[in-house]
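This section describes the prediction task in plain terms. A model, or a person checking by hand, is given the sequence of a single protein chain and must write out its three-dimensional structure as a string of C-alpha coordinates. No templates, partner chains or ligands are provided. The sample shown here is typical of the held-out split.
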Amino acid sequence: MHHTTLQLLLVAVVALPLVGALAALLPAPPGLKGKSPDQAVLRHGVTVTGAVLAAAIALAVGFDHDDPARMQATTDISWIPALHIRIHLGVDGISLPLVVMTALLTFLCALYSYFHPPVAHRDPSQEAFRAARHHGGPSPKAFVALLLVLEAGTLATFAVLDLMLFFLAFEMVLIPMYFLIARWGGAGRQAAAWKFILYTLLGSVVMLLGLLLIGVKTGTFDMVALATDNGPQAQLSHTVQLLAVLAIGIGLAVKSPLWPLHSWLPDAHTAAPTVGSVLLAGVLLKMGTYGFVRIALPITPEGMHTIAPYLAALAAVGIIYGSLACLALVRKGARGDLKRLIAYSSVGHMGFVLLGIASATPTGVNGALFANIAHGLITGLLFFLVGALKDRTGTTDLDALAGSTGAALYGKAPRFGGLLAFAAVASLGLPGLAGFWGEMLAMFGAFQPAAGLSRPAFWTFMVLAGLGTLLTAAYLLLVVRRVCMGGTPHLAPTAPLGADGDPDPDAPEAPVTAPALPDLARYEYAAWGPLAALTVLAGLWPAALLGLTDPAVQQLLGGGK
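The expected answer:
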Protein backbone atom coordinates (compact mmCIF):
# COMPACT_ATOMS: atom_id res chain seq x y z
CA MET A 1 0.00 0.00 0.00
CA HIS A 2 1.25 3.50 -0.79
CA HIS A 3 2.99 5.39 2.04
CA THR A 4 0.58 8.35 1.85
CA THR A 5 -2.44 6.04 2.19
CA LEU A 6 -0.92 4.36 5.25
CA GLN A 7 -0.05 7.76 6.67
CA LEU A 8 -3.66 8.96 6.28
CA LEU A 9 -4.98 5.73 7.82
CA LEU A 10 -2.83 6.16 10.93
CA VAL A 11 -3.81 9.84 11.29
CA ALA A 12 -7.47 8.78 10.91
CA VAL A 13 -7.07 6.09 13.58
CA VAL A 14 -5.79 8.67 16.07
CA ALA A 15 -7.96 11.66 15.07
CA LEU A 16 -11.36 10.03 14.33
CA PRO A 17 -12.22 9.23 17.98
CA LEU A 18 -11.59 12.88 18.97
CA VAL A 19 -13.81 14.17 16.16
CA GLY A 20 -16.41 11.57 17.11
CA ALA A 21 -16.26 12.64 20.78
CA LEU A 22 -17.02 16.25 19.80
CA ALA A 23 -19.83 15.13 17.49
CA ALA A 24 -21.34 12.99 20.29
CA LEU A 25 -21.90 16.10 22.38
CA LEU A 26 -23.86 17.85 19.59
CA PRO A 27 -27.63 17.34 19.25
CA ALA A 28 -28.54 14.36 17.04
CA PRO A 29 -29.69 15.27 13.51
CA PRO A 30 -33.50 14.90 13.24
CA GLY A 31 -33.37 11.96 10.83
CA LEU A 32 -30.99 9.91 12.99
CA LYS A 33 -32.75 10.01 16.32
CA GLY A 34 -34.21 6.53 16.00
CA LYS A 35 -36.34 5.63 19.00
CA SER A 36 -34.63 8.19 21.23
CA PRO A 37 -31.68 10.62 21.28
CA ASP A 38 -29.96 8.27 23.77
CA GLN A 39 -30.11 5.41 21.30
CA ALA A 40 -28.84 7.67 18.51
CA VAL A 41 -25.74 8.70 20.47
CA LEU A 42 -24.96 5.09 21.46
CA ARG A 43 -25.28 4.13 17.79
CA HIS A 44 -22.93 7.02 16.96
CA GLY A 45 -20.40 5.45 19.38
CA VAL A 46 -20.63 2.11 17.55
CA THR A 47 -20.25 3.84 14.14
CA VAL A 48 -17.17 5.87 15.11
CA THR A 49 -15.37 3.01 16.89
CA GLY A 50 -16.31 0.73 13.97
CA ALA A 51 -14.74 3.20 11.51
CA VAL A 52 -11.59 3.39 13.67
CA LEU A 53 -11.41 -0.42 13.79
CA ALA A 54 -11.82 -0.60 9.99
CA ALA A 55 -9.00 1.94 9.56
CA ALA A 56 -6.79 -0.01 12.00
CA ILE A 57 -7.42 -3.27 10.13
CA ALA A 58 -6.71 -1.56 6.80
CA LEU A 59 -3.47 -0.23 8.32
CA ALA A 60 -2.53 -3.77 9.44
CA VAL A 61 -3.30 -5.16 5.97
CA GLY A 62 -1.31 -2.43 4.21
CA PHE A 63 1.59 -2.72 6.64
CA ASP A 64 4.75 -4.09 5.04
CA HIS A 65 4.98 -7.41 6.89
CA ASP A 66 8.38 -8.15 5.32
CA ASP A 67 9.94 -5.24 7.22
CA PRO A 68 8.18 -4.91 10.58
CA ALA A 69 11.26 -3.40 12.25
CA ARG A 70 10.90 -0.23 10.18
CA MET A 71 8.62 2.58 11.35
CA GLN A 72 5.80 2.78 8.80
CA ALA A 73 2.93 5.19 8.07
CA THR A 74 5.05 7.97 9.55
CA THR A 75 3.98 11.60 9.84
CA ASP A 76 6.60 14.07 11.08
CA ILE A 77 5.60 17.74 11.39
CA SER A 78 7.25 20.39 13.55
CA TRP A 79 4.77 21.49 16.23
CA ILE A 80 6.58 23.56 18.89
CA PRO A 81 10.00 24.34 17.32
CA ALA A 82 11.30 26.20 20.39
CA LEU A 83 10.99 23.00 22.47
CA HIS A 84 11.92 20.63 19.61
CA ILE A 85 8.48 18.98 19.94
CA ARG A 86 7.17 17.38 16.75
CA ILE A 87 3.91 15.71 15.78
CA HIS A 88 5.60 12.43 14.94
CA LEU A 89 3.44 9.34 14.35
CA GLY A 90 4.31 5.86 13.12
CA VAL A 91 3.82 2.15 13.80
CA ASP A 92 6.11 -0.86 13.69
CA GLY A 93 5.72 -4.53 14.60
CA ILE A 94 5.66 -3.67 18.31
CA SER A 95 2.91 -1.05 18.29
CA LEU A 96 0.71 -2.30 15.42
CA PRO A 97 -0.84 -5.25 17.36
CA LEU A 98 -1.61 -2.92 20.29
CA VAL A 99 -3.27 -0.37 17.98
CA VAL A 100 -5.50 -3.06 16.42
CA MET A 101 -6.37 -4.59 19.82
CA THR A 102 -7.27 -1.17 21.27
CA ALA A 103 -9.53 -0.39 18.30
CA LEU A 104 -11.17 -3.84 18.58
CA LEU A 105 -11.80 -3.71 22.34
CA THR A 106 -13.23 -0.18 22.19
CA PHE A 107 -15.54 -1.17 19.31
CA LEU A 108 -16.78 -4.24 21.23
CA CYS A 109 -17.36 -2.05 24.32
CA ALA A 110 -19.38 0.44 22.24
CA LEU A 111 -21.37 -2.42 20.67
CA TYR A 112 -22.10 -3.94 24.09
CA SER A 113 -23.15 -0.51 25.45
CA TYR A 114 -25.57 -0.01 22.53
CA PHE A 115 -27.54 -3.13 23.46
CA HIS A 116 -26.91 -2.79 27.17
CA PRO A 117 -26.93 0.97 27.89
CA PRO A 118 -24.81 2.04 30.87
CA VAL A 119 -26.78 2.92 33.98
CA ALA A 120 -25.40 5.63 36.24
CA HIS A 121 -25.54 4.52 39.87
CA ARG A 122 -26.82 7.20 42.17
CA ASP A 123 -26.43 7.61 45.88
CA PRO A 124 -29.94 7.54 47.40
CA SER A 125 -29.09 10.40 49.77
CA GLN A 126 -28.35 12.64 46.82
CA GLU A 127 -31.14 11.35 44.61
CA ALA A 128 -33.22 14.50 44.50
CA PHE A 129 -30.21 16.74 44.12
CA ARG A 130 -28.83 14.70 41.22
CA ALA A 131 -32.21 14.29 39.54
CA ALA A 132 -32.51 18.07 39.48
CA ARG A 133 -29.01 18.46 38.11
CA HIS A 134 -28.98 15.69 35.52
CA HIS A 135 -32.67 15.20 34.78
CA GLY A 136 -32.35 11.54 35.72
CA GLY A 137 -28.61 10.93 35.74
CA PRO A 138 -25.62 11.33 33.44
CA SER A 139 -26.56 11.02 29.79
CA PRO A 140 -25.26 8.46 27.31
CA LYS A 141 -23.90 11.49 25.42
CA ALA A 142 -21.27 12.02 28.10
CA PHE A 143 -20.59 8.26 28.25
CA VAL A 144 -19.94 7.97 24.49
CA ALA A 145 -17.83 11.14 24.41
CA LEU A 146 -15.67 9.88 27.31
CA LEU A 147 -15.30 6.45 25.70
CA LEU A 148 -14.07 8.06 22.46
CA VAL A 149 -11.63 10.42 24.22
CA LEU A 150 -10.29 7.38 26.08
CA GLU A 151 -9.84 5.56 22.77
CA ALA A 152 -8.06 8.55 21.21
CA GLY A 153 -5.63 8.75 24.12
CA THR A 154 -4.76 5.06 24.13
CA LEU A 155 -4.32 4.86 20.35
CA ALA A 156 -2.16 7.98 20.38
CA THR A 157 0.04 6.49 23.14
CA PHE A 158 0.86 3.53 20.88
CA ALA A 159 1.26 5.63 17.71
CA VAL A 160 3.29 8.70 18.74
CA LEU A 161 7.08 8.83 18.44
CA ASP A 162 7.80 11.99 20.42
CA LEU A 163 8.43 11.76 24.17
CA MET A 164 6.33 14.84 24.99
CA LEU A 165 3.41 13.68 22.84
CA PHE A 166 3.70 10.27 24.50
CA PHE A 167 3.35 11.97 27.87
CA LEU A 168 0.33 14.00 26.73
CA ALA A 169 -1.41 10.92 25.30
CA PHE A 170 -0.52 8.93 28.43
CA GLU A 171 -2.22 11.60 30.58
CA MET A 172 -5.17 12.10 28.25
CA VAL A 173 -6.78 8.82 29.27
CA LEU A 174 -6.90 9.65 32.99
CA ILE A 175 -9.77 12.14 32.91
CA PRO A 176 -12.26 10.03 30.90
CA MET A 177 -11.42 6.95 32.99
CA TYR A 178 -11.93 8.95 36.20
CA PHE A 179 -15.40 10.04 35.10
CA LEU A 180 -16.38 6.59 33.83
CA ILE A 181 -15.59 5.14 37.27
CA ALA A 182 -16.99 8.06 39.32
CA ARG A 183 -20.25 8.38 37.34
CA TRP A 184 -21.12 4.91 36.10
CA GLY A 185 -19.28 2.78 38.67
CA GLY A 186 -20.64 0.63 41.47
CA ALA A 187 -20.15 0.78 45.23
CA GLY A 188 -17.16 2.78 46.44
CA ARG A 189 -16.74 4.40 43.04
CA GLN A 190 -15.79 7.91 44.25
CA ALA A 191 -12.95 6.68 46.45
CA ALA A 192 -11.76 4.28 43.74
CA ALA A 193 -11.80 7.01 41.08
CA TRP A 194 -9.80 9.39 43.29
CA LYS A 195 -7.30 6.67 44.16
CA PHE A 196 -6.89 5.84 40.46
CA ILE A 197 -6.25 9.42 39.39
CA LEU A 198 -3.99 10.37 42.32
CA TYR A 199 -1.75 7.31 41.95
CA THR A 200 -1.40 7.63 38.19
CA LEU A 201 -0.97 11.42 38.24
CA LEU A 202 1.75 11.31 40.88
CA GLY A 203 3.54 8.55 38.93
CA SER A 204 3.22 10.62 35.75
CA VAL A 205 4.73 13.75 37.33
CA VAL A 206 7.87 11.76 38.16
CA MET A 207 7.84 10.26 34.65
CA LEU A 208 7.69 13.74 33.11
CA LEU A 209 10.88 14.70 34.97
CA GLY A 210 12.65 11.66 33.50
CA LEU A 211 11.44 12.45 29.95
CA LEU A 212 12.53 16.09 30.31
CA LEU A 213 15.94 14.98 31.57
CA ILE A 214 16.46 12.91 28.40
CA GLY A 215 15.21 15.76 26.18
CA VAL A 216 17.41 18.39 27.84
CA LYS A 217 20.55 16.25 27.81
CA THR A 218 20.19 15.05 24.20
CA GLY A 219 18.45 18.07 22.64
CA THR A 220 15.66 15.94 21.11
CA PHE A 221 12.45 14.21 22.14
CA ASP A 222 12.35 12.05 18.98
CA MET A 223 11.96 8.42 20.08
CA VAL A 224 13.23 7.02 16.76
CA ALA A 225 16.40 9.13 16.78
CA LEU A 226 16.99 8.33 20.45
CA ALA A 227 16.64 4.59 19.86
CA THR A 228 19.14 4.32 16.99
CA ASP A 229 22.64 2.97 17.37
CA ASN A 230 25.06 5.77 18.40
CA GLY A 231 22.12 8.21 18.32
CA PRO A 232 21.76 11.25 20.59
CA GLN A 233 21.29 8.97 23.61
CA ALA A 234 24.92 7.82 23.26
CA GLN A 235 25.90 11.07 25.02
CA LEU A 236 23.87 10.17 28.12
CA SER A 237 26.16 9.18 31.01
CA HIS A 238 25.36 6.11 33.10
CA THR A 239 24.16 8.29 36.01
CA VAL A 240 21.81 10.31 33.79
CA GLN A 241 20.45 7.10 32.25
CA LEU A 242 19.87 5.61 35.69
CA LEU A 243 18.09 8.73 36.96
CA ALA A 244 15.98 8.93 33.80
CA VAL A 245 14.98 5.25 33.82
CA LEU A 246 14.11 5.38 37.54
CA ALA A 247 11.87 8.43 37.05
CA ILE A 248 10.23 7.11 33.87
CA GLY A 249 10.01 3.60 35.33
CA ILE A 250 8.01 4.80 38.37
CA GLY A 251 5.38 6.41 36.14
CA LEU A 252 5.18 3.35 33.89
CA ALA A 253 5.21 0.91 36.83
CA VAL A 254 2.18 2.57 38.44
CA LYS A 255 0.25 2.13 35.18
CA SER A 256 1.53 -1.42 34.53
CA PRO A 257 0.85 -2.07 37.63
CA LEU A 258 4.04 -3.33 39.29
CA TRP A 259 3.85 -4.58 42.88
CA PRO A 260 3.85 -2.65 45.30
CA LEU A 261 2.48 0.28 43.24
CA HIS A 262 -0.60 -1.71 42.24
CA SER A 263 -3.00 -0.93 45.09
CA TRP A 264 -5.17 1.47 43.04
CA LEU A 265 -6.02 -1.31 40.58
CA PRO A 266 -8.34 -3.70 42.52
CA ASP A 267 -10.48 -0.78 43.78
CA ALA A 268 -10.70 0.83 40.34
CA HIS A 269 -11.64 -2.47 38.67
CA THR A 270 -14.18 -3.44 41.30
CA ALA A 271 -15.95 -0.07 41.17
CA ALA A 272 -15.69 0.53 37.40
CA PRO A 273 -18.63 -0.24 35.08
CA THR A 274 -18.18 -3.34 32.89
CA VAL A 275 -16.95 -1.35 29.88
CA GLY A 276 -14.54 0.61 32.11
CA SER A 277 -13.07 -2.61 33.56
CA VAL A 278 -12.62 -4.12 30.08
CA LEU A 279 -10.72 -1.08 28.79
CA LEU A 280 -8.74 -0.61 31.99
CA ALA A 281 -7.47 -4.20 31.89
CA GLY A 282 -7.36 -4.66 28.14
CA VAL A 283 -5.75 -1.38 27.11
CA LEU A 284 -4.68 1.00 29.89
CA LEU A 285 -2.34 -1.42 31.69
CA LYS A 286 -0.58 -2.06 28.36
CA MET A 287 0.44 1.60 28.09
CA GLY A 288 2.83 1.13 31.00
CA THR A 289 4.51 -2.03 29.70
CA TYR A 290 4.65 -0.58 26.16
CA GLY A 291 6.50 2.44 27.57
CA PHE A 292 9.16 0.15 29.07
CA VAL A 293 9.72 -1.52 25.69
CA ARG A 294 9.55 1.62 23.56
CA ILE A 295 11.38 4.11 25.83
CA ALA A 296 13.31 2.49 28.70
CA LEU A 297 14.97 -0.43 26.85
CA PRO A 298 16.31 1.37 23.74
CA ILE A 299 16.89 4.92 25.05
CA THR A 300 18.40 4.19 28.48
CA PRO A 301 19.92 0.70 27.98
CA GLU A 302 22.60 1.03 30.68
CA GLY A 303 20.18 2.42 33.24
CA MET A 304 17.70 -0.35 32.39
CA HIS A 305 20.48 -2.94 32.79
CA THR A 306 21.16 -1.64 36.31
CA ILE A 307 17.52 -1.72 37.47
CA ALA A 308 16.58 -4.93 35.60
CA PRO A 309 17.22 -7.34 38.54
CA TYR A 310 15.10 -5.16 40.86
CA LEU A 311 12.33 -4.85 38.28
CA ALA A 312 12.37 -8.63 37.79
CA ALA A 313 12.31 -9.24 41.55
CA LEU A 314 9.26 -6.98 42.00
CA ALA A 315 7.57 -8.63 39.00
CA ALA A 316 8.15 -12.11 40.50
CA VAL A 317 6.78 -10.96 43.88
CA GLY A 318 3.78 -9.49 42.01
CA ILE A 319 3.10 -12.84 40.31
CA ILE A 320 3.05 -14.70 43.64
CA TYR A 321 1.23 -11.90 45.48
CA GLY A 322 -1.52 -11.64 42.84
CA SER A 323 -2.07 -15.41 42.92
CA LEU A 324 -2.17 -15.62 46.73
CA ALA A 325 -4.60 -12.68 46.91
CA CYS A 326 -6.87 -14.50 44.44
CA LEU A 327 -6.66 -17.75 46.41
CA ALA A 328 -7.64 -15.82 49.56
CA LEU A 329 -10.65 -14.31 47.75
CA VAL A 330 -11.88 -17.59 46.26
CA ARG A 331 -11.97 -19.64 49.47
CA LYS A 332 -15.31 -20.35 51.11
CA GLY A 333 -16.58 -17.76 53.54
CA ALA A 334 -14.15 -15.05 52.38
CA ARG A 335 -16.97 -13.07 50.73
CA GLY A 336 -14.60 -12.56 47.83
CA ASP A 337 -15.66 -10.37 44.93
CA LEU A 338 -15.20 -12.01 41.53
CA LYS A 339 -14.37 -8.68 39.85
CA ARG A 340 -11.74 -7.98 42.50
CA LEU A 341 -10.29 -11.46 41.99
CA ILE A 342 -9.82 -10.85 38.25
CA ALA A 343 -8.21 -7.47 39.06
CA TYR A 344 -5.69 -9.18 41.33
CA SER A 345 -5.09 -11.81 38.65
CA SER A 346 -4.06 -8.89 36.37
CA VAL A 347 -1.32 -7.96 38.85
CA GLY A 348 0.05 -11.50 38.45
CA HIS A 349 -0.33 -11.62 34.66
CA MET A 350 1.33 -8.24 34.19
CA GLY A 351 4.14 -9.53 36.43
CA PHE A 352 5.01 -11.98 33.65
CA VAL A 353 5.10 -9.13 31.13
CA LEU A 354 7.46 -7.09 33.33
CA LEU A 355 9.65 -10.16 34.02
CA GLY A 356 10.04 -10.68 30.26
CA ILE A 357 10.97 -7.02 29.77
CA ALA A 358 13.45 -7.11 32.68
CA SER A 359 15.32 -10.06 31.10
CA ALA A 360 16.29 -7.62 28.28
CA THR A 361 16.50 -10.53 25.82
CA PRO A 362 14.63 -10.83 22.49
CA THR A 363 12.89 -13.97 23.83
CA GLY A 364 11.72 -12.27 27.00
CA VAL A 365 10.60 -9.03 25.33
CA ASN A 366 8.72 -10.93 22.60
CA GLY A 367 7.06 -12.96 25.34
CA ALA A 368 6.13 -9.77 27.17
CA LEU A 369 4.55 -8.26 24.05
CA PHE A 370 2.68 -11.50 23.35
CA ALA A 371 1.46 -11.73 26.96
CA ASN A 372 0.29 -8.10 26.69
CA ILE A 373 -2.03 -8.93 23.79
CA ALA A 374 -3.16 -12.23 25.32
CA HIS A 375 -4.00 -10.56 28.62
CA GLY A 376 -5.97 -7.85 26.80
CA LEU A 377 -8.09 -10.42 24.95
CA ILE A 378 -8.63 -12.87 27.82
CA THR A 379 -9.10 -10.44 30.73
CA GLY A 380 -11.27 -8.21 28.55
CA LEU A 381 -13.49 -11.25 27.95
CA LEU A 382 -13.49 -12.16 31.66
CA PHE A 383 -14.59 -8.67 32.71
CA PHE A 384 -17.37 -8.70 30.11
CA LEU A 385 -18.57 -12.05 31.47
CA VAL A 386 -18.42 -11.01 35.13
CA GLY A 387 -20.30 -7.79 34.33
CA ALA A 388 -23.00 -9.81 32.59
CA LEU A 389 -23.09 -12.26 35.52
CA LYS A 390 -23.68 -9.34 37.89
CA ASP A 391 -26.52 -8.09 35.67
CA ARG A 392 -28.11 -11.55 35.73
CA THR A 393 -27.64 -12.44 39.41
CA GLY A 394 -27.26 -9.02 41.02
CA THR A 395 -23.98 -9.94 42.71
CA THR A 396 -20.30 -10.71 42.12
CA ASP A 397 -19.86 -12.12 45.65
CA LEU A 398 -18.34 -15.59 45.24
CA ASP A 399 -20.04 -17.00 48.32
CA ALA A 400 -23.43 -15.80 47.08
CA LEU A 401 -22.73 -17.16 43.57
CA ALA A 402 -21.71 -20.54 44.98
CA GLY A 403 -24.48 -20.68 47.61
CA SER A 404 -27.85 -22.35 47.51
CA THR A 405 -29.19 -20.01 44.87
CA GLY A 406 -25.78 -20.46 43.26
CA ALA A 407 -25.05 -19.51 39.72
CA ALA A 408 -24.45 -23.20 38.77
CA LEU A 409 -24.01 -21.85 35.28
CA TYR A 410 -23.48 -25.18 33.52
CA GLY A 411 -27.01 -26.21 34.44
CA LYS A 412 -28.80 -22.87 34.14
CA ALA A 413 -26.99 -21.10 31.29
CA PRO A 414 -24.68 -23.69 29.72
CA ARG A 415 -23.28 -21.47 26.95
CA PHE A 416 -22.58 -18.67 29.39
CA GLY A 417 -20.96 -21.12 31.82
CA GLY A 418 -18.95 -22.72 29.03
CA LEU A 419 -17.60 -19.35 27.86
CA LEU A 420 -16.69 -18.34 31.43
CA ALA A 421 -14.84 -21.65 31.92
CA PHE A 422 -13.07 -21.15 28.56
CA ALA A 423 -11.92 -17.65 29.57
CA ALA A 424 -10.70 -18.92 32.97
CA VAL A 425 -8.77 -21.81 31.39
CA ALA A 426 -7.26 -19.40 28.82
CA SER A 427 -6.26 -17.07 31.66
CA LEU A 428 -4.40 -19.83 33.50
CA GLY A 429 -2.19 -20.34 30.43
CA LEU A 430 -3.43 -23.61 28.93
CA PRO A 431 -1.22 -24.61 25.96
CA GLY A 432 -3.07 -24.01 22.69
CA LEU A 433 -4.62 -20.76 23.93
CA ALA A 434 -3.15 -17.25 23.85
CA GLY A 435 -2.24 -17.07 27.55
CA PHE A 436 0.39 -19.83 27.28
CA TRP A 437 2.98 -18.41 24.88
CA GLY A 438 3.67 -15.07 26.49
CA GLU A 439 4.18 -16.53 29.95
CA MET A 440 6.37 -19.35 28.67
CA LEU A 441 8.57 -17.02 26.60
CA ALA A 442 8.89 -14.58 29.53
CA MET A 443 10.13 -17.47 31.69
CA PHE A 444 12.53 -18.57 28.93
CA GLY A 445 13.84 -15.00 28.86
CA ALA A 446 14.44 -15.15 32.63
CA PHE A 447 16.16 -18.55 32.21
CA GLN A 448 18.81 -16.95 30.00
CA PRO A 449 18.85 -13.20 30.74
CA ALA A 450 20.92 -10.64 28.85
CA ALA A 451 24.71 -10.69 29.27
CA GLY A 452 25.82 -9.18 32.55
CA LEU A 453 22.61 -9.96 34.46
CA SER A 454 22.88 -12.44 37.33
CA ARG A 455 21.67 -15.84 36.15
CA PRO A 456 21.10 -17.32 39.64
CA ALA A 457 18.90 -14.33 40.54
CA PHE A 458 16.87 -14.62 37.33
CA TRP A 459 16.58 -18.39 37.77
CA THR A 460 15.05 -17.71 41.19
CA PHE A 461 12.55 -15.30 39.59
CA MET A 462 11.77 -17.89 36.92
CA VAL A 463 11.04 -20.54 39.58
CA LEU A 464 8.78 -18.08 41.42
CA ALA A 465 6.97 -17.32 38.15
CA GLY A 466 6.55 -21.06 37.54
CA LEU A 467 5.07 -21.44 41.02
CA GLY A 468 2.78 -18.52 40.15
CA THR A 469 1.40 -20.43 37.14
CA LEU A 470 0.45 -23.34 39.43
CA LEU A 471 -1.27 -21.02 41.91
CA THR A 472 -3.04 -19.28 39.02
CA ALA A 473 -4.38 -22.62 37.81
CA ALA A 474 -5.54 -23.40 41.36
CA TYR A 475 -7.62 -20.25 41.90
CA LEU A 476 -9.09 -20.12 38.40
CA LEU A 477 -10.22 -23.75 38.57
CA LEU A 478 -11.75 -23.04 41.98
CA VAL A 479 -13.64 -20.10 40.43
CA VAL A 480 -14.97 -22.39 37.69
CA ARG A 481 -15.98 -25.00 40.25
CA ARG A 482 -17.76 -22.52 42.51
CA VAL A 483 -19.48 -20.43 39.83
CA CYS A 484 -20.10 -22.78 36.92
CA MET A 485 -20.69 -26.07 38.73
CA GLY A 486 -22.38 -24.46 41.72
CA GLY A 487 -23.81 -26.48 44.56
CA THR A 488 -27.07 -28.32 44.63
CA PRO A 489 -29.39 -26.33 46.91
CA HIS A 490 -28.26 -27.33 50.39
CA LEU A 491 -30.89 -25.34 52.28
CA ALA A 492 -33.74 -27.52 53.48
CA PRO A 493 -37.02 -26.71 51.72
CA THR A 494 -39.11 -24.49 53.96
CA ALA A 495 -42.61 -25.40 54.99
CA PRO A 496 -45.22 -22.61 54.67
CA LEU A 497 -46.08 -20.87 57.96
CA GLY A 498 -49.37 -21.58 59.74
CA ALA A 499 -51.76 -18.99 61.19
CA ASP A 500 -49.76 -18.85 64.47
CA GLY A 501 -46.56 -17.94 62.62
CA ASP A 502 -44.94 -21.38 63.16
CA PRO A 503 -44.27 -23.77 60.28
CA ASP A 504 -47.43 -25.67 59.40
CA PRO A 505 -46.52 -29.41 59.44
CA ASP A 506 -49.58 -30.40 57.38
CA ALA A 507 -48.98 -28.00 54.52
CA PRO A 508 -47.12 -29.35 51.49
CA GLU A 509 -43.50 -28.21 51.34
CA ALA A 510 -42.67 -25.40 48.94
CA PRO A 511 -40.12 -26.72 46.47
CA VAL A 512 -36.82 -24.88 46.24
CA THR A 513 -36.51 -23.49 42.75
CA ALA A 514 -33.32 -21.82 41.71
CA PRO A 515 -33.98 -18.68 39.66
CA ALA A 516 -33.48 -19.22 35.94
CA LEU A 517 -30.64 -17.33 34.26
CA PRO A 518 -30.85 -16.09 30.69
CA ASP A 519 -28.17 -17.64 28.48
CA LEU A 520 -26.05 -15.70 26.00
CA ALA A 521 -27.96 -13.17 23.93
CA ARG A 522 -27.13 -12.53 20.28
CA TYR A 523 -25.48 -9.17 21.00
CA GLU A 524 -23.30 -10.89 23.64
CA TYR A 525 -22.11 -13.41 21.04
CA ALA A 526 -21.27 -10.47 18.77
CA ALA A 527 -19.38 -8.56 21.48
CA TRP A 528 -17.51 -11.50 23.01
CA GLY A 529 -17.11 -13.95 20.12
CA PRO A 530 -14.17 -12.10 18.49
CA LEU A 531 -12.20 -12.15 21.77
CA ALA A 532 -12.71 -15.91 22.20
CA ALA A 533 -11.84 -16.58 18.54
CA LEU A 534 -8.65 -14.47 18.70
CA THR A 535 -7.61 -16.20 21.94
CA VAL A 536 -7.74 -19.56 20.14
CA LEU A 537 -6.09 -18.18 16.99
CA ALA A 538 -3.18 -16.59 18.89
CA GLY A 539 -2.75 -19.81 20.87
CA LEU A 540 -2.62 -22.08 17.80
CA TRP A 541 -0.75 -19.68 15.51
CA PRO A 542 1.60 -17.60 17.67
CA ALA A 543 3.86 -16.94 14.66
CA ALA A 544 1.28 -14.44 13.35
CA LEU A 545 2.10 -12.10 16.24
CA LEU A 546 5.72 -13.09 16.93
CA GLY A 547 6.59 -12.61 13.23
CA LEU A 548 5.57 -8.96 13.64
CA THR A 549 7.23 -8.28 16.99
CA ASP A 550 10.48 -10.25 16.69
CA PRO A 551 12.34 -8.23 13.98
CA ALA A 552 11.31 -4.98 15.70
CA VAL A 553 12.48 -6.28 19.10
CA GLN A 554 15.81 -7.51 17.66
CA GLN A 555 16.46 -4.08 16.18
CA LEU A 556 15.33 -2.31 19.35
CA LEU A 557 17.68 -4.31 21.60
CA GLY A 558 20.51 -4.26 19.04
CA GLY A 559 20.24 -0.51 18.38
CA GLY A 560 20.82 0.41 21.99
CA LYS A 561 24.20 -1.32 22.23
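For orientation: The CA atoms of residues 360 and 450 lie 6 Å apart.
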